[in-house]
Amino acid sequence: MNDTQEIPLWEVFIRPRNGLSHRHCGSLHAADSEMALQAARDVYTRRGEGLSVWVIPSAQIVASDPQDRDQMFGPSDDKIYRHPSFYDIPDDVGHM
Amino acid sequence: MHAPLFAALIRLADDHLILGHRLSEWCGHAPMLEEDLAMPNIALDLIGQARALYSYAGDIEAAGRDEDLLAFGRLERDYQNLLICELPNGDFAQTMLRQFYFASFMLLFWAEAEGSSNATVAAVAAKAVKEAKYHRRHCGEWVIRLGDGTEESTLRMQEACFVLEPYLGEFFAVDDVAIEMSKASILPNAQSLRGAWLADVCEVFVSAKLQAPDLTHAHKGGRQGRHTEAMGHLLAQLQYMQRSFPNMTW
Q1: I need a surface site. Which of A11, A28, A94, B154 has the fewest CB within 10 A?
Q2: Candidate from B31, B38, B145 with C-beta closest to A42
Q3: pLDDT tens string B193-209
Q4: Looking at residue A52, which CATH number applies to its domain?
Q5: What would the CATH number be for the domain defined by B3-244?
Q6: Which burial class, exposed, middle or buried, applies to B231 when counting CB atoms under 10 A from its CB (0-12, 13-18, 19+)?
Q7: pTM check: above 0.80
C-alpha cells in the first residue's frame, strides 16, 4: 500500500448542480472502480460540492501531445470568422 | 428526569464519541491520502452523532450539564461505551473490521430507531442512518479487499477477526435499561438485531473469504463502566484540554 505506483490513478469528475455538466476536479489513487468512487466522494465532496461523481481510469484517457500543439491548435488561430462576432445585435436583446 | 432514557442516550453517545475519537487517531497516519480523508470523515460523523445524543441527554437530565460537560467532564467509570469502541486501533485491517462491525450494527439500529416513539431520537436516527449506510459500505469494501487480497492482507484480516471476536457479543446484550427503551418503542432491542447483523456480516465475509464470527464468548462490562486498560489512556488524551483549562472554548 505504500507503493502507490502499483495502485492505479483515476480522474475525478463532479457535477455540482442539476443542469450543469461534470467537470474535472482532480485525481486520486484507488485499487478499483468502487474504491475510486468512494475515495472521490471522500476527497472531493466534503463541502457539498457534488450531486454526481464520475471516476475514469487515467490510463483510459487519450491525450493530445503537447509537442503537437502547433499542428493541432495553431490553424484555428487565424480563423476569426468562426466566432459569431460579426452580427449586429439589436440593443434590446441586451447582453448575450 | 427520565432515568432509563438518559442512561440509554449516554451509552449510545459514549459508543460514538469513543469510537470517533479512536478513529480520529488515524488522521495524518493513514496508509494512503485518500483514506486519510475517509477515516476522519467517518470519525466526524460519529462525533456529530455523539453531540446530538449528549445534548439531548443533557436536556433530559435537566441538571445543567451540556454536551461538552457530558463528553469531557466525567470519570472513566461513568462512561458506558461498548468495550470494542475503546480498543486500540491495531493495524488498518483491525480498524476497518471494527468499523465495519459497528457500522453494520448501527445501520440496523438507526433504521429501526427512525420509527421511534420519541421524536428527537427519530430525528437523530434519520440523519445517522444515511451516514451509517456509507460507513458500512466503505468499511465493508475494505474488509473484502483485505480479506481476499494479498497473502499479508489476508493474514492481517484474519488476525483482526480473532482479536475482535470476543467483543462482538456485547453489542447484543440487553439489561433493564435496554428492555425499557424497547418496550416504550424509543430504541430498538439490540438482541433482536443479532440475526440480521450476522447475516450482513456473513454476506461480506463470504466475499472476503473469512470465517463467520463466533459470538458465544463475549467480554462484558462496558455498559456498567468497567473498562479495558486502554480506556484510561484514551480519556487522558480526550479530556486533556477540558481538564487543564475547564470550560475553555475556541
Answers
A1: A94
A2: B38
A3: 999 999 999 999 999 99
A4: 3.10.20.520
A5: 1.20.1260.10
A6: buried
A7: yes
